Amino acid sequence: MSTRVLIVEDEPEFLRRFTDAVLSDRELALAGAVVNGAAAKAMLDAQPIDVLLVDLGLPDMDGVEVIRHAVARHPACDVMVVTMFGDDGHVLSSIEAGATGYVLKDAMPEQITTCIHQLRAGGSPISPSIARRVLARFHQRPAGVQAMAQPEPSPLSERETEILRLVAKGLSFQAVGEVLSISPHTVVTHVKKIYSKLAVHSRGEAVYEAGQMGLL
Amino acid sequence: MKPGRWGCCDRLLIGAAMALLALGLASCTVDPHRRGTAALIEPTRAEMLVSDAPVPPGDDAPWAVVTLPDLRGTSATWYRVAFEVPVPRADSWAVYLPYLYGGGAVMLNGVPVEQIAEATPQRHVRWERPHLVALPDSVLHSGRNLLHLRVAPASLPSGARLPALAIGAHAELLPVHERRLFWVHTMPQFTAIACAVVGAFVLFIWLGKREEVLYGLFAGATLFWGFRTLTFVVEVLPEAWWPTWRLLYHSANGGFVILMTLFTLRLAGWQRPAVERGLLLYWLLGPIAYLASGGSESLAGRLWIGGMIPVGLSMVVLTVVAAWRQRTKTMVALMLSVSLGVVAGVHDYAMAWDSDLLRQLSPHWLAHRIFLLHFGANLLLLVMGTVLTTRFLNAMRDLEELNRTLEQRVAARERELASNYERLSKLERVQAAADERAHIMRDMHDGLGSTLFTSLSRVERDQMSTEEVADALRACIAEMRLALEAMAPEDRDFLGTFGSFRFRWEALLQARGIRSQWSVDVPDERLDLTPNQALQVLRVLQEALTNALKHAGATQIDITLNVVEGRVHAEVADNGRGLQPGLDRPGRGLLNMRSRAQRLGGALQVDSQPGRTRIALDMPLAA
User: Are B207 and B162 found together in one domain?
Assistant: First the structure.
């Protein structure tokens, strides 16, 4: 059974680029290509979607909202965020909203499909700058820098932290796998787990804050 | 000194003054006459015969009747007093003599009962103490008894004097005797010791703080007074020492008065160097006159000391005026104590020289010979000591206050400096950021801008294939990424930037089927570079990698980054065909890299030959 992909991108040029990439792969099925958040939500609710490819700068809402909607209503759906350079702060907020992958805007068609397949297989890409941000997010800065505040107990396992550290240094998954004596496939699986933990962690915080503000 | 400060001290002063006054008055009332005890016999008459004989002359000698006290004797004199002892008599009896300066002997009914040492050519005596002579029960009988008293002459006060004596029960006379003993003997002992201790202490303070002249004056006056008081304590002295002893006594006596005067003048704020010099000279005059005259008591003790009386009276006037003007409790206390001291001094002077005035006013008082200057001077010293102590405490308090103010000022200054420093470093940071921004903007202008404009121009003239346009745009995006990477890390750690760079290029090289070997060796696992430095280093590496990728046809590229002794070394080595100087593009790329290396304060080293090309950047960490 092929992977059903929904593309949400308001720029026609990139919409076309992603659409072409998906269409070019026999194992992927294009479930839809929409240009705003409202349409994206409607499409998500109307049919089962395996992978959501979403840009953040949508005309009617923040892409993060679409991600939240997908994660909350359709847990089986994997979310990939479309990013210009792979290191802007939006990627992290998307991951915190529940995205488990990202794809670069200028990625070649085969790179786009590879990313989708990898994500479905249980793995996620991660760039050094995202790895650094995630580490910082858990108050575990790379070697040498003392944390300013008393760190809260990290939800990350030692292995996951180690992977993040190596990725932050610029090592490829291959190299990380070599250093840790695990396969590159295991590395990407760990990364997806890290993303999920970050999302859970961040949702827990959101709920707590909402409770504090009297919204719940 | 502000009156308000005297809240606690004035009570102390007044209390001390009252206590001393009370004591002084109490001593004046030690007078057997007023005790009104019927059992005491206080003869008003006696028989007298001038005779140096060791035993009393017989009844046939020419005894003469005199009234007691008899102060006119000049040489050794026998007195005899008859008295009745009532029957029955229960207790032991005694005879009480308030003083017997030159010593002598007491005989009862012809039996010697007491010998009080007299002066000899080798020994000088001067008994200040009273005498209580027990009358043995075996010799004393009921009815009429006859008491013989031998009175030896003394040098000071001169002559043989028989005071008003009292005969009666020993138990009744004992307290009277003890009271006088306390005031004329114990009290001076105590005064001498206290003055020595206090004087030495204050002297010690003054030696450490010479500019505080008041302390020196007070220490001197106290020590002088203590020494002078010894004259009442030391009653027996080798005759050879006597002149020296008197010289010292006069010096100390005059010194006390003069130093006290100087002290008072200063405290009253009336300081005249000429007057001070004059007073000090006058002080010297006494001992000199005593020495020059061969120990003339009347010259030194009478005339010279008498000259101190006007000085004392001026002091009284001065302190009265100062107290009136200043209206501080200090000055009032000083005025009162100076006045009392001067009155006591004049009284004692009159008493010592048997002044006619005093004789006429109260011969009984004169006969008792109770000197008051002890108390007056002690009071004066106490008041002045209190004044000094208060000044000392106030000075300490002022000092503490000053310290506190100073500390506050220092703290305020420190805060000011810190905030200045903060402002300055903030300005510096802003300036540094502005410099960095300028660098990077120029860079984007020259690099990205020029590529975009050139491409646009060529595209407009249809001179670029789609392939070339895509290449140019990819180059621009790569350039952009580089700039973002260089400026991204918040903590300026180049290793993070380098990690992103490596991540991107490793994937790129792998996609092109080129093996790459990355080696990083940086001490401390950290490398601080400014965004501009980071950007330039990455540029050089990117340029070198691009060359290797596009033109060298390499299959293996080694990238090295290390830091040795404060110098950054970045190197790209490939196994391609080597640089071809004939071609335009690599040449311009190399020139670019060279100029970047120079701007970083470093150098670019290029080794190229077929199969091995090495481009190395070497630059100092701090530009």
Answer: no
Q: Do A132 and B481 touch (CB under 8 A)?
A: no
Q: How many domains does chain B have?
A: 3
Please tell me whether the peptide bond between B3 and the residue prior to it is cis, using omega within 30 degrees of 0: no
Task: Please tell me which of B150-164, B214-228, B299-313, B457-471 the model is most confident about, judged by mean pLDDT.
Answer: B214-228
The ipTM estimated for the assembled molecules is 0.76
Structural domain range at position B575: 492-620
Please tell me if residue A155 touches chain B, with a CB cutoff of 8 Å.
no
State the pLDDT at residue A187.
Answer: 86
Tell me if A106 and B510 make a contact (CB, 8 A cut-off): no
pLDDT digits (tens, 9 = 90+) for B310-356: 999 998 998 999 889 888 888 888 899 999 999 999 998 888 887 77
Inside any domain, residue B416? no
B230 and B373 part of one domain? yes
Residue B231 CA to chain centroid, in angstroms?
Answer: 35
Residue of A14, A90, A129 to mutate, testing the B interface (most B Cβ within 10 Å of its Cβ): A129
**Residues B114 and B231 both lie in one domain:** no
With beta carbons under 8 A apart, name residues in chain A contacting B507.
172
Q: Which residues of A touch B496 (CB under 8 A)?
A: 128-129, 132, 142, 168
Contacts of B510 in chain A (CB under 8 A): 172, 174
The DSSP H or E segment spanning B607 is strand B603-609
Regarding predicted confidence, which is higher, B195 or B351?
B195
Is B260 within the bounds of a domain?
yes
How many percent of chain B have pLDDT more than 90?
30
User: What is the number of alpha carbons within 13 Å of residue B48 lying toward its C-beta?
Assistant: 21
Q: How far is CA A154 from CA A132, A140, A159, A161, in A?
A: 15, 8, 12, 9
Mean predicted lDDT score pLDDT of chain A: 80
**Mutate which of A102, A169, A187 to disrupt the B interface (most B C-beta within 10 Å)?**
A169
- Beta B45-50 vs B64-67: how paired, if at all? antiparallel
Partner-chain contact A170 B499, CB within 8 Å: yes
- Cα–Cα nearest to B190, from B42, B61, B11, B20: B20
- CA closest to B511 among chain A residues: A111
pLDDT at B20: 55
SS3 of B418-467: the string is: HHHHHHHHHHHHHHHHHHHHHHHHHHHHHHHHHHHHHHHHHHHCCCCCHH
Give the strand pairing for A78-83 and A101-104: parallel
Q: Is residue B48 part of a domain?
A: yes
Q: Which residue has the higher pLDDT, B368 or B55?
A: B55
Same domain, B375 and B522: no
Q: Is A172 on the interface with B (CB under 8 A)?
A: yes
Of B161, B180, B199, the residue at which a domain comes to its end is: B180
Looking up residue B563, the CATH number of its domain turns out to be: 3.30.565.10
Element (H, E) at B574: strand B567-574
Q: What is the CATH number of the domain that holds B173?
A: 2.60.120.260
Which residues in A lie closer than 8 A to residue B484 (C-beta atoms)?
85, 87
Q: Does residue B459 fall inside a structural domain?
A: no
Q: Is residue B28's pLDDT more than 60?
A: no
pTM of the model as a whole: 0.54
List of domains in chain A: 3-121 (3.40.50.2300), 129-212 (1.10.10.10)
End-of-domain residue from the set B157, B180, B203: B180
